[in-house]
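re: ur question from yesterday

yeah so i grabbed the chain u mentioned. its 379 aa long if i counted rite. heres the sequnce exactly as i have it in my notes:
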Amino acid sequence: MSKNNLLYCATDKEIYDVLMSAKQRIHAGVVLELAKDRGIFLSPKDGRETLVNYLSLLPHDYHDLNIILDHREHAGRSEKLTSVTLNAALTVEEIKEVVKEYTSESPADETITSHSKGTDQFVVNVKYSEIDYGKTRLVQRTPKEAGIEFHVDGDKTVIRMPSNAKAKEVVSKLKGKLDGKKKTDIPTDSIEIGEFKSAASRTEFFTSLISKLKGFKLDNVTSVKVEPIKREPEEDELDLEDDQNKEQAKQEALALVRNVALKGETLLASEEYQSLVKKGFFITSIIWRAKETTIPYPIVEFEAAFEEPEDGKGFKYSVRGALNFSEGEYTKTLRPIDAEAKEKLLSLIEQTANATIAEIRKGLVPEIPEADQPGEIDP
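ran it thru and got these structure tokens back, copy pasting raw so excuse formatting
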């Protein structure tokens, strides 16, 4: 069966809903320009709702709808990545075979392309649709793309993918086919810190990660999210029978701070952060900048977080861009990093994260009881 593109038509109400639901991206000025492109000059004194109502009643062909949808799309940063390591000796040919098998069985709304990259990498690109019935009908189906990379290194293969449910689902199915080919359940490793029960050890994972990237020197921390360590209920809390006590406990629980986000400069040295550390909070997400120690000394911005902070699972990370040194000063805004350099930086994050976890496991960072945690952490 051929995989035909999905076709749709739009009513004036659906066009109106799309225009009205994207107030920040489709403001009154954009509506005036959309009308002007069709040779219609509307008054800038009219309110946005009046302009949108007029524009939605005009005939719209496929091209017109695409222009509106393009205006509505986010121009945000790329999605954060995650990875899993397969502990088995695989070849690019074996990966290619299971990808070919998966492609033949893939759903009709998926388009899959793949190619080898050098002698030790294989790239799979999955184009699919994401449906959100909470949105207006015309934009319920959003086209998405997931690039999945297999990096073969001796008896291990690192699979790097976007940190979303679809990419993880595809990887799970591909691994299942590899298991079948190898006639065994291939062991896997992920970057997780759930085994570390103290806030100090979990925070040490992040502070070591940002300060031990080979070839970089920590420059600044600009964003931090923290959460309190999960506390098991005491026996007397479990045995509450009095309704008044239960209600009081409920109100106290509602008053607890579950997470805090801090933004600014030199956050790890700030009073607010140090106060939270004393109360048993640990880092769950961080954005930092590090200066490369070789010419031309760019400052690279990184991000790392856990999707499930309480359980220390779902490590995701990204390289957000770089401030380049030019004409005696650094650029004011982040610039894109070329694909080859970005791949090396992503590998560096993975390697440093794994090495840090191994160090904590060896006891280089002791598990400190919560009551004895230090008030300050040296960034």
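noticed a couple things. The first helix runs from residue 12 to 20. also Residues 12-72 form one domain.
anyway ttyl
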